[in-house]
Design goal:
The protein is mainly alpha-helical. The chain contains 12 helices and no strands. α6 runs antiparallel to α9.
Length: about 280
């Protein structure tokens, strides 16, 4: 038997193994896509039921639930929008300098500061909300203030949970950026602030936009902190939806979810058109 004939079975086995590997990968991709897409399609389907209760099959279909969103959740949505915008501003003001400092400088305590900035990601939301609530109550008792249940307390709490994402994305954007341009600008006489403003921040543009988007979505969708820190005059959209579900089981909540998904999708498409968000993780 020749050497070529002996090698044929091993080549066939290798081909079969590669084919099986490709089939397994495609099956896993299909399962992951189904886990994401099927719930979205079901939510979209429920949102057009012409029923006061969620019954299947429905007697008809309507878009009236979308028209009812503003009347039922308009005020809460505006509160969440304002809270998200303030959280983005606060977290960017903290996270961008922190990301630049951690990425570009080596100093004593750097690891401890990085761990501290990312620590809120490791704490369960309920535990963090309860801890912040107790802390704000203690502050009110000591200072005679009224931070608990106010917009200020809620904004500070949301800045705490959104800043870690800003720091992570700013670090990621600078990791892929060569320092040669910054060093060249410094060697030509530019001061540290000028280098940051003219070279570093433009290089971080995609990361900053992605960080702002993540911070806004996380703030807008957060429920755990809002459960402890909202008051009757300051109610966010997630809390309003939860309160609505206590007494109603109708397609309106599905319509709210679809509207949020559509808004975020449009925002992502618009931002990616002008700022390539995928460059952040390359």
């Amino acid at each position: 038997m020749t050497t070529t004939s002996k090698a044929m079975p091993s080549i066939r086995r290798a081909d079969l193994l590669r084919a099986a590997e490709r089939a397994i990968i495609l099956a896993l991709i299909a399962c992951g896509a189904a886990l994401i897409i099927v719930p979205l399609l079901l939510t979209l389907y429920l949102s057009v039921f012409d029923e006061k209760l969620i019954l299947f099959p429905p007697r008809g279909y309507t878009l009236a639930w979308y028209a009812a969103i503003v009347a039922n959740f308009g005020k809460a949505a505006m509160t969440s929008l304002r809270l998200g915008a303030l959280s983005v501003v606060g977290s960017l003001a903290i996270g961008i300098p922190a990301g630049i400092g951690l990425a570009r400088h080596r100093f004593r305590g750097r690891g401890a500061i990085a761990t501290l900035l990312l620590a809120p990601l490791t704490v369960p939301g309920i535990a963090l909300g309860l801890a912040i609530f107790v802390a704000l109550v203690a502050i009110d008792e000591q200072l005679g203030s009224a931070v608990t249940g106010s917009m200020i307390g809620l904004v500070l709490a949301h800045i705490m949970i959104t800043t870690p994402w800003v720091v992570r994305l700013c670090l990621a954007s600078l990791t892929n950026h060569d320092r040669a341009a910054e060093e060249a600008a410094a060697s030509l006489g530019a001061g540290p602030l000028t280098v940051i403003w003219r070279v570093t921040l433009p290089a971080m543009r995609a990361g900053i936009v992605a960080a702002a988007l993540f911070a806004f979505v996380i703030s807008f969708e957060n429920l755990e902190l809002a459960l402890f820190l909202t008051s009757p005059g300051v109610t966010t959209l997630p809390v309003a939806v939860l309160q609505y579900l206590e007494y109603h089981i109708d397609p309106l909540v599905s319509a709210v979810a679809v509207a949020q998904i559509a808004a975020v999708a449009v925002l992502l498409l618009v931002l990616d058109r002008f700022v390539r968000l995928g460059q952040v993780v390359r």
